[in-house]
Design goal:
Blueprint: H1 4-108, H2 112-118, E1 127-135, E2 142-151, E3 154-160, H3 166-178, H4 181-184, E4 192-198, H5 204-212, E5 216-221, E6 224-227
Parallel strand pairs: 3-4, 4-5
Antiparallel strand pairs: 1-2, 2-3, 5-6
Length: 237
């Protein structure tokens, strides 16, 4: 059996090894703890930077929202202003268009008595009126007549347009052919109806269309207004 002294040596050897291993383990643990602390410190620094970046991002988003709000307000003001301008322009153009229509009528109307006298041999006007609104004899329809001139058992019916569109020509031709004029003016029934379509300028095709429908075409010729389809002029006695 081993002696007490041998056992003591063995124990001392084991104790020494234990102390060495424990010391090594403690050093390793201490190093790992230090590394962990360093990593935690780095992590905290990164988190702090992240929080700072998030704070900056929030500030930028707040500024962006403010800018978008200002932009929306500016766009709303721009739309309101543009709407008012366009509305005003539309109204202005409408007024100009209406004025152009009445301007042509104002130029045409004073020429009708002269045309009646020079072309149709009228000596005196029995009736002359512009822009007449009249109901038909049944009272169902109201129509505006640009110029009505009555002389020597003739009724001059003038239609004036600033722009002689085809639809205007067709509508006037149909009205003349239908004989509806006398339903508005039954007092002139039995008189000769002389239809005249007038504008500042009438193209050859328009004059041709009016001539085919036995309607006189009147427009500017030189420095005054005159009949452009003389082949329809009645022969004077």
């Amino acid at each position: 059996m081993p002696t007490v002294e041998a056992r003591v040596d063995t124990l001392e050897s084991l104790l020494g090894q234990f102390i060495v291993h424990t010391d090594t383990a403690l050093r390793r643990l201490e190093r790992e703890m230090r590394e962990f602390k360093d990593e935690m410190r780095a992590f905290k620094d990164e988190m702090r930077e992240f929080k700072d970046e998030m704070r900056e991002f929030k500030d930028e988003m707040r500024e962006f929202k403010d800018e978008m709000r200002e932009f929306k307000d500016e766009m709303r003001e721009f739309k309101d202003t543009t709407g008012k301008i366009l509305s005003g322009q539309s109204k202005r153009w409408g007024e100009i268009a209406n004025k152009m229509g009445t301007l042509v009528e104002d130029i045409v109307a004073p020429n009708i008595p002269r045309i009646a006298r020079e072309v149709f041999g009228c000596k005196e006007m029995d009736f002359f009126a512009v822009r007449i609104e009249k109901r038909d004899k049944k009272g169902n329809v109201t129509r505006e007549f640009d110029v009505i001139a009555v002389c020597d058992k003739k009724v001059l019916l003038n239609e004036t347009k600033s722009t002689p569109r085809q639809s205007y020509l067709e509508e006037f031709a149909e009205f003349v052919k239908s004989g509806k004029f006398f339903s508005f003016f039954p007092e002139y029934k039995g008189m000769k109806l002389v239809p005249i379509f007038s504008s500042l300028y009438l193209s050859d095709s328009v004059v041709e269309y009016l001539s085919k429908n036995k309607i006189y075409a009147m427009a500017m010729k030189g420095d005054t207004m005159d009949i452009l389809n003389p082949q329809l002029k009645p022969q004077r006695k």
